[in-house]
Each structure stands twice: as C-alpha cells, then as structure tokens.
Design goal:
The chain has 349 residues and is mainly alpha-helical. 78% of the residues lie in helices and 0% in strands. It folds into two domains: 158 residues, Serine Threonine Protein Phosphatase 5, Tetratricopeptide repeat, CATH 1.25.40; 163 residues, Tetratricopeptide repeat domain (Serine Threonine Protein Phosphatase 5, Tetratricopeptide repeat, Alpha Horseshoe), CATH 1.25.40.
C-alpha cells in the first residue's frame, strides 16, 4: 500500500504541473471546472480525500480534454486513497473510455487493474495488467505491472488448487460417510465417480479395493474383476494385493473367463512356497480346465494335489473333485473307485 501511496502522490504533482504549463491563471476569472480542479488538488494535498474526490468530479466537466482527463485520474486517486476501489475503478474507466489517447491512459489502466485486484476481481485485474504490458511496453510502470500480473496469476492458480482440494476432500468425506452407514452401493458409486475424475489420486488403490469389494458383495463379478485388476495395476505391492489376486481370479472364473483365471491360478501356485497355497491354486486351475473340458489337464492337477502336495486338508477335496471329473468324462468305474478311496481314507466326510 505504501508503494501505491508514493505513486499516487507523484501522479497528483504531475497533474498540477501539467495544468500550470497549459496556462491556467490564478483563481480569478477561471471557469468553474478549472477552479474545481485547483480546489480538488488542494484537498488532495491536505489528505481530505472525500472533498478531493467530489471536487475532481466537478472538474471533469472541463472543456479542456487534458484537464478533464487529469480530473478523472485525480478522482480515481482520491477514491483509491479512501479505499473505495469500485468507484476508483469507475473513474479510471471514464478516463480510458473518454480519452483513450491521453498520456494519462497508461496510469489509469494500471490503476484500474490494481483497484480490481483490491476488490478481488482477479480476472479483470489480469486483463488490465495484460493490456497494459501489451500496449505500453516501454512505460516506466512496466516492471511494477509485470510483478502485479504475476501475483494475480499465482493467486488464481492457488485458488484453483484450493478449490480442487476442497472438492476432493468433500467427495472423500461423502464416500466415508456412506461406508460408515453401510450404504455399500452408494459408496461404490461415489468411489467410481471419484476414480473417473481423479485416477491418479493417492487414495486410488483404496478406492479400487472398495469398488471391488462392494461389487463382489453384490454379485457383480465383472465389475469386481475390473476393479481388482486396476488395484493390482496401480499398486501391485498393496497390503491386500494377495487377497486381490485371489479374488480377481475367482471373479474371472465366475464371469466365464476361464483361460485368464487359470493363468492367474497357475502363476499363484508357481510363485508360492506354502503347500496349502499351492494346493488351493492348483485345485482352482484344475476347475478352470474342467470348465474348458480339458479333462487330462484337470485329472493331472487333481491327482497332484491328492498325491504330491503336503496338504492333508485339501486331499479329500481333490478326491471329491476328481470323482466328479470322471463322472463328466463318463468313466463311472474310475468315479466309483475314487469315491471308495475317499470314504476309506476320510470316513467322517
């Protein structure tokens, strides 16, 4: 504000000197507008800004274009000093519209931009500062205007970021509210919209997991599979990645994508050192082979669980599925022998 005060004072002195050089005589015999101008200047110098603004308004009626333009600028400065940015801006606009070629036009254009900035009309301020730099590339105020324009642009950009952050915060809060109230479908829909708008947000993995779990809960296995896939793509080391891979394969199986599901199960079996994990994945891969009617591959997988893997809990499961496989292959003798083995080894099942 101090910088603007020094600028205003210098401008006022310039206006008076300019006026005297045009031959304005002492108050006696002056026209009313010219007398008003001198009175306005006296008021301004004495920091009686309200009186100065009023007197400058009368002075704008001068038939001398130079003095009229100076009066509009003086009125703008007096109103500016009063903090009446709106009326100050209006005074500068009058100068610019009535006397666009006045040597005071650059000052008025810059001052109008500054007044707009003070009233938080940043787009108007930006337009005036940009116009000033385009029209008056060698003006003494160029450096000051450049700094002001940078400030306005930075403020606008900061507000855009703040608004975006507020919108994101509000949307995440709505999702959490729906979750706390166990409104699963509402939470799923809100999370889906959020991910469409902000796919790279740092909460994206959690939201993909939310969408997947909600879709799985409702039996929408196609959407669940897609959500699990996106989670694994963006966060393969996520804390729930192992569970997500298992559910992803299961959802693929339930939507009839047996080959894709089988590939995941085989990869899971090969990657694990845990016997039970390997056995479960192998059983699931065999189920995919059954769905694809690849009988030999399925038979081999079921037998490997029953014979090779050190997982006693899943051996009866493998025998049961093997018997069902022989039924599907129309081999009743093998089916019966397998069921007999199952009853003998596991009589309580």
């Amino acid at each position: 504000m101090k910088t603007w005060g020094r600028f205003s004072s210098r401008t006022s002195r310039f206006i008076v000197i300019f006026g005297i050089s045009m031959g304005v005589q002492s108050t006696t015999g002056q026209s009313a507008p010219d007398a008003a101008y001198r009175a306005a200047h006296a008021h301004y110098q004495a920091r009686r800004f309200a009186e100065a603004a009023e007197a400058f308004a009368h002075a704008t009626a001068s038939t001398n274009a130079t003095f009229a333009a100076a009066a509009w600028l003086g009125r703008g400065e007096a109103l500016f000093a009063l903090g009446d940015w709106e009326k100050a801006g209006a005074a500068y606009t009058e100068l610019l519209s009535r006397y666009p070629d006045s040597p005071l036009a650059p000052r008025a254009l810059y001052a109008r931009g500054y007044a707009a900035q003070r009233t938080d009309r940043l787009e108007s301020a930006r337009a005036d500062f940009t116009a000033f730099l385009d029209r008056y590339p060698t003006n003494a105020l160029r450096e000051t205007c450049t700094t002001a324009l940078k400030t306005v642009i930075a403020t606008q950009q900061a507000r855009v970021r703040q608004a975006a952050l507020a919108a994101v915060t509000a949307e995440l809060a709505a999702i959490n509210d729906a979750l706390r109230a166990e409104r699963w479908e509402e939470a799923r829909a809100a999370a889906t919209r959020f991910l469409a708008a902000y796919p790279d947000h740092n909460q994206a993995p959690e939201l993909h997991l939310l969408v997947a779990a909600s879709a799985y809960r409702s039996g929408d296995y196609a959407d669940a599979a897609e959500a699990y896939r996106k989670l694994l793509d963006c966060a393969p080391q996520h804390a729930h990645a192992a569970e997500a891979r298992e559910r992803y394969a299961e959802c693929l199986f339930k939507t009839g994508k047996f080959e894709a599901a089988r590939s995941l199960y085989v990869a899971r079996a090969e990657a694990s050192d845990d016997p039970e994990t390997r056995a479960r994945a192998t059983l699931a891969a065999a189920d995919c082979d059954v769905a694809l009617k690849r009988w030999a591959e399925a038979e081999h997988a079921y037998l490997s669980v029953e014979v090779l893997f050190d997982c006693e809990a899943l051996r009866p499961v493998a025998l049961k599925r093997l018997a069902a496989l022989y039924d599907a292959m129309e081999q009743p003798d093998k089916a019966n022998r397998t069921r007999e083995t199952l009853r003998r080894r596991y009589p309580d099942m």
